[in-house]
Structures are given as C-alpha cells and as structure tokens.
C-alpha cells in the first residue's frame, strides 16, 4: 500500500508522520503477519503479563467456538493497572476527565489502581464472585471505568448499559443477564440538563426481580429515592474499612468471560455479546498500539460512550493496556457552545481524537469559525468509527480539524469483533470514505448470495474468514443463536451483516447494514426493539420501523403504526407515542416520524416486509414482490 500507484482521490501521509509511526511500512508488516498470523498474535501477547503461559495460541477444534491462548492465566485489569504501577508509569495520568459543567479530575495509574482495588473489595464484601454479572448504568464519569475494572479484577462479568437507554431497555438487559448488583449514578449531565438515571433504575426495578443491591454514585447531588436495604451510596461504601486497596486480583483463565455487552441483531431482543480476558486483551492492546500509533507521551481522546463497544475497547481497556493517558468528557459536543471540543483539545493538548461521522457532521454545520478560534496543533491523528463517513465530512475533518497534516483512521469493526478489523495505519495512503484494508492477518472477503467472491467494485456481503483474538465467543446464554446469526449464512465464515465493495486497489468501501439493524448517529438499534416499544403502548396494535437517510444522524427511524380499533388518529397521539418510545427505550430511539396506516406489507408467513416500506418512502422500486401477501 505504501509504494504502489493508487486510483482515485488519494491522501498520502507526510514523511514526518511516517518517520514517527511505529509501523513504517504496512506491506512489510502485512507480509510478515500473513505468513503466520498466530505467531504474530503470540508475539503481541508476550508483551503483556500472564500468570501462566498458553499451551496453544488458537484452538479451533470446536468451530465456530474458537478459543485463544488456551491454558493461559491472566487478568486484563492487572495488565491495565498493576503492571504500570510497577514501572515509571506509576504517576503518569491514566485518566483525565472533564465534566460538562467544566470540572476537571485526573487519576494517575497509581490512583486508578487504588480506587479500583477499593471498589473491587467493596463488591466482594457484597458477595459478588467470579462469574457473577454486574450491571453498570452511568453517565461518562471516571467511576464507570473504575466499576468496569473492579469487576474485571474480581472476575465478575460486567454488563454496561448505555446511559442513553431508558426503562425497558435497562429492564430487559437486567433480566437477561440476571444481575444481582447494579451500579448507577444519581443522574448524568447532558446539554445542561440532568438525565435522572436513578429514577429510571427505580422504574426498571419494578419490572426486574434479580437485583439485590444498587450502588449509587453521587454525581449531580439532586435529591433521589434511596430504598433502604437495597440502595447504598458508593462514597459511603468506599469510606468503610472493607474498601481497602489490598490486592484483590482473581487469576482468570484466558477464556473466562470478561464482559457481556448487549447489541441489536437481525431479529428479536438485543443479544449479549460475550468477550473474554485473554484474546480481547491481546486484540485491543495490539490494534490500538498500531492504528493510533500510541507513543508514551500521547494524550488520547476517544469521544465515544463507554456504554458501547468503542468505549469498552478504546476508552477503557485498549488505552490502559498501552499505558497511555485517556481523556474522557462527560457531556455534549456543543454545550454550551459549538467550540467545546476544540477548546478541550487546545486546553489539554490532545494528540489523537477518535470520534464518529455523526459528531463530525453535527459540528461541521456550525461552520469553521468555531474550530478556527482554537490552537489544534497538538493533534497528530484523527479517527472515525460507527458508520460510513461521507467524503465531504472526511475532507472537512481532515482540512479544518487536522489542518491537512493528520491522517484519519477510519476504523470498521463491530461489538462482535471487539477490535478494529478494517483500518488504515498512519503510514497508509487514504481514500476518503474507505477504511482501506483489513488489519494484517485478518482475511476478509465480499461474497455474492452463492458465497462466491464478487468482482472489484461490485457490491456483496462482507465476511471474515480467519479467527481473530478479540472475536465474540458466543451469545451469552444462547450459543445456538451465535451459530445461526453469524456462521450460517455462509458456512465456515463469519457474516458481518454489512454490505460492501472492494475497489481495484483492494480498498474496502462499506455500504451499510443488510439486516434489520438501523444505525442512528452511529448507535446500533434494532427495528424489533422500536416496534415492541410502540406496541407496548395501549393505542397501538401493530408497528413497523425502518431507517431512512438523515443528514446528521446518518439514518433516522421512521415508523408505521396500525392503531387499535376505536383509537383516534391525531397529532397529540403522534407526540405521545414518540415520547413513549423515548421513555421505554431511550431518546436515541425516538422515531423521526410516525405514520398511521391501515395495513402493513407482509409476507405470506406474516413477516413485515420493511424493504417494501423503505422503497416506497424513498420513491424506489421495491423489486421482488413475489412473497408479498396482497
Ligand atoms: O455497519 C457497520 C458499522 O457499525 C456496525 C457495528 O456496530 P456496533 O456493533 O455498534 O459497533 C460500532 C463501533 C465499532 C457495523 O456492522 N460501522 C462501524 N464502523 C464503521 C461502520 N461502517 C462504516 N465504516 C466504519 N468505519
């Protein structure tokens, strides 16, 4: 990729970037890794701490239930914290945080280790044991990372629920994971307002029975309900003698679960993607190091939410494994003014900014004057994730934010992959809108319906052909669904759910989801979830949801609703239904439009044909209608 002549709009990295980069020649690395990818991952694994080494790097004897570093023992939290406290990184900042109201907090590796050990001991004293599930539901505050790491430390499986979700989404995830302990903040600041997380919890817990203890972090100080015998303040527990920083590390098998994270799939309820200590650790450590080119002195900012996989892998685990300084910001990018992000980059000297196309498009519409007021010269690399980035937004990001000197790492990956899969590195020539090529050692392909590789520039289904260390191990409590969802469409290969093209230079271009997943502002939502939220309202008999293009959000949710007999159609009801979805699922799921209809297009077996609704809304030809009922 470094030397050949490429077609189209190409942006080559400067000599300065190449000279500084850890990987100076992508082709050399790729050639080396492709010869023996297991050896490559093994070498990377050796850079981390293991209590016991592995017998095998990859065990593929029970496909598609792959295992990595079998026989080895480790703990990801030990590698994130303890390892660094034993070196000169002890007093280096691990986490820098700014609140939406402007407060600043920082934790050195020493301090983050101390807080994590203390909280791990609190959890243990509450009876949390290895393998127990703990749900975490908070705004973007340091305690969220502390809670995740404390769980990992004692071998509990964390299940982080995005703070933008509400009652039913939380309830469903609590129920499915059977969490006994829930950690929440009293509220979260968003655009100057308070999201009442604790009262959402109170309502969800009226529907869920498994939770025995609720630990509440005080963030806003607003009055909340504390239920005696169930609810406890985090700061009070952390002041007890039991909250000491004595070593609490649990020695884990490489394949022991680290976390589950719910994500939307093709059908039905969200599924719990399971990741493990060993492979996930090696995958996130390695990919972050090479792609974002982590140097000792870097200040790195991933502006995602820890409640999604990007935050798990690249705010918490990847950066800490690399011993870097990770910055976290609590609030909205435009609060109180559209220069908030640029102000913080200048103030803290951020070197790497990793965000989503929706945020870039959202900030772009306020014009260049806002970023131009700030000194952004500390930036060296930029990143993008979550959905295809349109070339216009890419170019704005590159020119206005990166001053034409910062390469953009457009990283394609998924909750299931755990780590970057298609991504450039700083030394790689870029084409706006393409994530370039798969990470070295990862074999991917684009197939037609019959499983044959499509020709260059032809659209097809994106698949992964080789196992990788941070891969999903299973769907928690549902191994059959793991097999049918990912490994059945094309036998022997992992189907991503995306469609894509590959150009004549081998660069990948993602087109979008081919299933019933809608990407709204980069967040992944299922049509089924929105539909069940609508149907849970007493006025609704049936509902269908589709995604349609939106300038800022990428896609917006549009819905079609059949009302129950006797219910009057009116504007007030539309607003009531929109609010109902926001209350049950979360504000991100609030439909852009609700259209009342008398019937929905269905197959003869009764499935809603969303593609017909979509084609109609876009004024396109719905194509094959042979399965349509009427
Ligand atoms: O459709 C792809 C899109 O996001 C999906 C995965 O969503 P999720 O599991 O929520 O993880 C998002 C963050 C890793 C993919 O199937 N997607 C993700 N990154 C990109 C992307 N589409 C295009 N370009 C990307 N860089």
Estimated helix fraction? 25-40%
Structural Rg: 24 Å
Q: What percentage of amino acids are in beta strands?
A: 15-25%
Task: Please tally the β strands and state the result.
Answer: 30
Query: Which shape, going by the Cα principal axes?
Result: globular
Strand order of the largest sheet: 12-11-8-6-7-14-15-23
3D structure, described in words:
The protein is of the alpha/beta class and 630 residues long. It has 19 helices and 30 strands. The strands form eight sheets. Strands 12-11-8-6-7-14-15-23 form an eight-stranded mixed beta sheet, with helices on both faces. Helix 7 (167-177) packs across helix 8 and helix 10 crosses helix 11 (309-321). The mean pLDDT is 96. Residues 263, 308-310, 384-388, 410-415, 435, 496-498, 510, 513, 519, 524 line the site of adenosine-5'-monophosphate-propyl ester (PRX).
List the helices and strands and how they pair.
Elements: H1 15-20, H2 26-35, H3 37-45, E1 56-59, E2 67-70, E3 73-74, H4 76-85, E4 93-98, E5 104-108, H5 109-125, E6 133-137, H6 142-154, E7 157-160, H7 167-177, E8 181-185, E9 188-190, E10 193-195, H8 197-207, E11 213-217, E12 231-233, H9 234-237, E13 252-253, E14 257-263, E15 271-276, H10 277-291, E16 299-302, H11 309-321, E17 325-329, H12 340-348, E18 352-355, H13 357-364, H14 369-372, E19 381-385, H15 391-401, E20 408-411, E21 444-447, E22 460-464, E23 474-475, H16 479-487, E24 494-502, E25 508-513, E26 517-520, E27 523-526, H17 527-535, E28 540-550, E29 554-563, H18 571-584, E30 593-596, H19 610-618
Parallel strand pairs: 4-17, 6-7, 6-8, 7-14, 8-11, 11-12, 16-17, 16-18, 18-19, 19-20, 29-30
Antiparallel strand pairs: 1-2, 3-13, 4-5, 9-10, 14-15, 15-23, 21-22, 22-24, 24-25, 26-27, 28-29
The chain binds adenosine-5'-monophosphate-propyl ester (PRX).
């Amino acid at each position: 990729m470094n030397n050949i002549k490429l077609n189209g709009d190409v942006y080559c990295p400067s000599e300065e970037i190449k000279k500084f980069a850890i990987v100076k020649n992508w082709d050399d690395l790729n050639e080396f890794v492709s010869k023996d990818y297991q050896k490559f991952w093994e070498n990377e694994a050796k850079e981390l701490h293991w209590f016991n080494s592995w017998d095998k790097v990859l065990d593929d004897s029970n496909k598609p239930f792959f295992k990595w570093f079998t026989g080895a023992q480790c703990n990801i939290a030990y590698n994130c914290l303890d390892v660094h406290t034993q070196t000169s990184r002890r007093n280096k900042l691990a986490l820098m945080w700014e609140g939406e109201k402007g407060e600043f907090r920082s934790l050195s590796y020493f301090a983050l280790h101390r807080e994590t050990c203390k909280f791990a001991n609190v959890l243990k004293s509450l009876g949390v044991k290895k393998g127990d599930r703990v749900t975490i539901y908070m705004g973007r505050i340091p305690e969220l990372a502390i809670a995740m790491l404390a769980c990992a430390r004692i071998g509990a499986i964390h299940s982080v629920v995005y703070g933008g979700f509400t009652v039913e989404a939380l309830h469903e995830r609590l129920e499915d994971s059977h969490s006994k302990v829930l950690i929440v903040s009293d509220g979260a600041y968003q655009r100057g307002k308070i999201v009442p997380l604790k009262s959402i919890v109170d309502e969800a817990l009226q529907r869920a029975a498994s939770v025995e203890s609720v630990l509440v972090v005080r963030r806003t100080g607003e009055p909340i309900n504390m239920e005696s015998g169930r609810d406890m303040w985090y700061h009070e527990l952390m002041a007890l003698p039991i909250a000491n920083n004595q070593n609490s590390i649990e020695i884990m098998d490489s394949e022991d679960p680290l976390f589950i994270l719910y994500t939307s799939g093709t059908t039905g309820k969200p599924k719990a993607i399971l990741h493990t200590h060993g492979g996930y650790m090696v995958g996130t450590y390695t990919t972050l190091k090479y792609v974002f080119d982590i140097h000792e002195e870097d200040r790195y900012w991933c502006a995602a939410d820890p409640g999604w996989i990007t935050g798990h892998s690249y705010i918490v685990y990847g950066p800490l494994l690399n011993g870097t300084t990770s910055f976290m910001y609590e609030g909205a990018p435009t609060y109180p003014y559209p220069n908030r992000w640029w102000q913080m980059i200048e103030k803290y000297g951020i070197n790497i900014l990793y965000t989503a196309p929706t945020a870039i498009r959202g900030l772009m519409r306020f014009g260049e004057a806002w970023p131009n007021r700030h000194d952004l010269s500390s930036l060296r690399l930029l990143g993008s994730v979550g959905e295809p980035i349109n070339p216009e937004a890419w170019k704005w990001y590159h020119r206005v934010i990166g001053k034409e000197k910062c390469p953009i790492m457009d990283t394609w990956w998924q909750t299931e992959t755990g780590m970057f899969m298609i991504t450039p590195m700083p030394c790689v020539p870029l084409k706006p809108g393409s994530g370039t090529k798969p990470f070295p050692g990862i074999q991917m392909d684009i197939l037609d319906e019959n499983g044959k590789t499509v020709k260059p520039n032809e659209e097809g289904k994106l698949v992964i052909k080789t196992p990788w260390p941070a891969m999903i191990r299973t769907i928690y409590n549902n191994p059959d669904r793991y097999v049918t969802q990912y490994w059945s469409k094309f036998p022997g290969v992992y189907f991503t759910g995306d469609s894509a093209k590959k150009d004549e230079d081998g660069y990948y271009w993602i087109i979008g989801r081919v299933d019933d997943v809608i990407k709204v502002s980069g967040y992944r939502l299922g049509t089924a979830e929105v539909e069940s939220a609508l149907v849970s309202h007493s006025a609704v008999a049936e509902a269908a949801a589709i995604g349609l293009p939106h300038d800022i959000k990428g896609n917006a949710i549009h819905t079609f609703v059949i009302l129950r007999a006797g219910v009057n159609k009116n504007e007030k009801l539309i607003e009531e239904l929109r609010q109902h979805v926001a209350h049950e699922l979360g504000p991100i799921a609030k439909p852009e439009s609700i259209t009342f209809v008398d019937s929905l297009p269905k197959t003869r077996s009764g499935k809603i044909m969303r593609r017909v609704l979509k084609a109609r809304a876009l004024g396109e030809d719905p194509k094959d209608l042979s399965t349509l009922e009427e």
